[in-house]
């Protein structure tokens, strides 16, 4: 909503404040400021001139005139102009040399087309008054020569632009914004809707409401003898432009102006094009309508709200009029329509046809039900005043009775919500400033607030009572323009808002007693810290994938990861599925980083995957919001939900050990992916068993299955070349994915006991067949070494002639330590020999050099 400050001042007795001060008060009251747009503040040295002589210059491709213009100085000014819509004797705006036009455009004297031009004669667009650039702006005859045009035309103004949320529809009008400004500055408010509307004397064009759910008030007024040649006055065109609307014609401009002024959308019909009674109803099967934008629209039976006559639909109610009955250049008789349509109905209609208009934006948020009579009267008065029309006596007023909504509330309730005590007088005063009618207790004799008469909105007779001992009850009738006020919390919010959020104390809430984080939460945090410490960077990706992602992973047709939940309303048609693995999001993030020049990347992500249960319903039931769901209903929802295990995944590409002056780096490999999985397992206090496996999307010869005991918890290794090609990944990209939900959690991880006694080390090199997994050798050594073994580390792998073909040498460092004594050489040697013996028995290992 764009609100010119000069327009606001017509309805509010504002003190001499700036637009920024007004915007600050509105922001404090809860209206979101977008920007302040200044107009005309940089314009200077523009005066009224009278054209004395016009000489037509020839020899140019376009008309050029050399004019003498009287501007109130000793001698007339000579000005060259290319416009032809003015004659000798016309009064026009003139920028004198040294003058400045909107946008900082400075005008000087210069020679052009062989003549000296001492200034410039201006159009409306050049003065910032509109988009009309078809010719010079001709001022009314008798305008004093030499008058400052800035003051004459009110060029200087500020427009406050606000973002209006759906719950404050009243602010989509100057009337609504002005009321907020008046409350904010505590000054009188002059309601433009507070006018005397004459009693109806007969009816206008016949009309009725056929569907009370679509419309509960419909008003028609008529004028005749309208002058089709009449132009919208400058002040109206300027206000429309600055409020964000394009002037069209006088009749249309009047309907738009009244809509901006009061918030009531209007529509003008050409009376000569109407046939028979007008009926407001829902669309019927097979109906179409060509709207003002020259699009033939197929209407939705039983949904779209229509205004019809005997010829069929003539307008999509509250959204856009029909082309057949539009106001044309020869319209002389006009029917003005004002109505109160169903907000949900207009919202569905507008979105179904992808047709968003200024009218629909207001109706779908809720329009003041009491405005149609006033707004239609204002419109026909302007047609008579500006267009020479005669207002026909009588008004057609079809109405469905609606009961007023009343809300009973303890006077102290807003204070309890805010944590600040508000006296009853303050609560009543603030509610009355909004236009609410407030009565003590349940007394039906309602006393009216200060700025508006008692009004009615749709709703029940009595809303909710929050009876608390010692509280004075008040009964509040919200005004018709506040359809959002439906329960005590709404009223409490309004009192708090008007009293000022800045006045609320800042009190930190007391921390609730509890055990802190769960073990699952602690594990996730430890895993994140461990991977970050190992050189990985955490990312968050959307949990949505497409069929192409699953194909790029080279998943078999029967793979369980292809069974994914499909979204009913996906953000993107290319990604309609919930992820069953974390890898697609990570791989696409890796590609994006590499594409931006980051070739050495190590990323990880923790998050949920979604695995549908066998036999679960395809969709979850939609429950009523009128009551709390039963246990059976909650169980039916839970049954439709997929399993959502917590996983962690990582991807690596490029150098994992960076190169520099110290030497060459080390390329990331499958071993780094396996080590990342080991880092994760270590945070859970478990050790992984690693075995070779074949599992998409990993390379068959470089894929490791990760086990805790007999439980498969994940996979790691180098990705398959076809996966790398499909995603456009760097060569030999590696990845790891592990399911945190499968790691055992036996309470808090216990810190290991630290012995004060020295460590004893023993190195051992074993020769094994080259197909023997290193993990099996390490497990045999660990089992054979016994309780004295503190750690085991592989530090060398050798293949060559010294160990023979088909064999490899694995060299380990074994660290021994006792918690209660210093170990002897004999003890460590015996433990080492026992470990070698178990390795020889299990995997056929031979001690190298023996």
Please provide a written account of the structure.
Helix 6 (250-262) packs antiparallel against helix 9. The protein has six domains: 2-40 and 158-185, Phenylalanyl-tRNA Synthetase, Chain B, domain 1 (2-Layer Sandwich); 44-155, OB fold (Dihydrolipoamide Acetyltransferase, E2P) (Beta Barrel), CATH 2.40.50.140; 207-399, Phenylalanyl-tRNA Synthetase, Chain B, domain 3; 407-502, no CATH class; 519-609 and 644-742, Bira Bifunctional Protein, Domain 2 (BirA Bifunctional Protein, domain 2, 2-Layer Sandwich), CATH 3.30.930.10; 760-847, Alpha-Beta Plaits (2-Layer Sandwich), CATH 3.30.70.380. The chain has 850 residues and is an alpha+beta fold. 25% of the residues lie in helices and 26% in strands.
Query: Could you name the CATH homologous superfamily of the largest domain?
Result: Phenylalanyl-trna Synthetase, Chain B, domain 3
Structural class: alpha+beta
Query: Order of strands across the biggest sheet?
Result: 27-30-31-37-36-35-34
**What do we call the CATH topology of the largest domain?**
Phenylalanyl-tRNA Synthetase, Chain B, domain 3
Proportion of strand residues: 25-35%
What is the helix tally? Answer: 20
| Helix content percent band | 25-40%
**Which architecture of the largest domain per CATH?**
3-Layer(bba) Sandwich
The description of the largest β-sheet is: 7 strands, mixed
Query: Residue ranges: pLDDT <50 for 5 or more in a row?
Result: 443-470
